[in-house]
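Much of the work behind modern protein science is quiet bookkeeping, done one molecule at a time. The protein below has been through that process, and both of its lines are reproduced in full.


***
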Amino acid sequence: MKAVRLIQPKAPLELHDVPTPKPGSRDVLIRVKAAGICHSDAHYRSGISRVEPLPLTLGHEVSGVVESVGGDVAQFEAGDRVCVHYMATCGHCDYCDLGSEQFCTTGKMIGKYRDGGYAEFILVPDRSVFRLPEEIPFEQGAIMMCSSSTSFHALKKVRLQAGESVAIYGVGGLGISAVQLAKAMGAGEVFAVDINERKLDLAKRFGATPVNAAKTDAVEQIKSLTNGRGADIALELIGLPKTMRQAVQSLAIFGRAGLVGLTRETFEVAPYDEVLNREAEIIGVSDHLASEIPQLLEFARTRKLDLSHGIIKTIPLDVGQINTTLDGLERFSDDIRVVITP
């Protein structure tokens, strides 16, 4: 089969012919119909985030059709439409038993520590596979498995309650999902913070109040829009120290800030004024959970989560076009999402 692989960091991906994997007893072999190109993949290629063992096929946002299954797999059969939870986990360690399998002691993320979906086929454990409803196109099913599912997990981690206000810092792929999911979960006013007018216009279409951080102080604007109170919830989806600090500063009393964006840099917090005196919380958000995927799929099936706007273009399993897309992501280009359709 054909697969687009990372051979070494800081070098373009390469197209290779590799053996089609054979299912073990609890495995599902999936013919890839769609694989999203995520900003994390650009980090992997650039060497910012470690990938091993090399060479390795990238791609952790995957949907497709079951090609074959292992002998002990009863819930899937050839021809089923499916999407893939990007963690391959053991299912029996302490973290898996707790339902927090993102910390599985032997877990491996597809497209980072085991071969992913930039290929014609992908092999994953059956516990990582979910049926994709007919109403959801493969392209949308793929990107839901990272950006949408991470946004959903973040909103659950910060314990969003009906009627609460939400400030979302960064309205790219994760942020547009977060806007819609917050509304679907009963949020009151949702504020979308970004410097990109097109993204802010899209967030406004989904009911958010846009806050253009290129033209105004985002924290002061959110406080003004909430009569000085601040937001009950703030999600930081960018990974910049400045916006992490702003997320904390924009909180109301008892507010919760969920930090999602990836960075190794630090940011400053004024403990008394910004945390202690508000009894505010700063909450780390890591990945998402398999148990959350069924509800997420139902939101998409019933169009409470609409991803049709975000598929700007699809490309074939073409190494040149994939590398060009990753180049654009490294420059923070305007595209929300590009999806490979082998």
Q: What stands out?
A: The CA atoms of residues 88 and 142 lie 16 Å apart. The chain has two domains: 2-146+289-340, 159-284. The two ends are 11 Å apart (CA to CA). Residues 2-146+289-340 form a domain with the Quinone Oxidoreductase; Chain A, domain 1 fold (CATH 3.90.180.10).
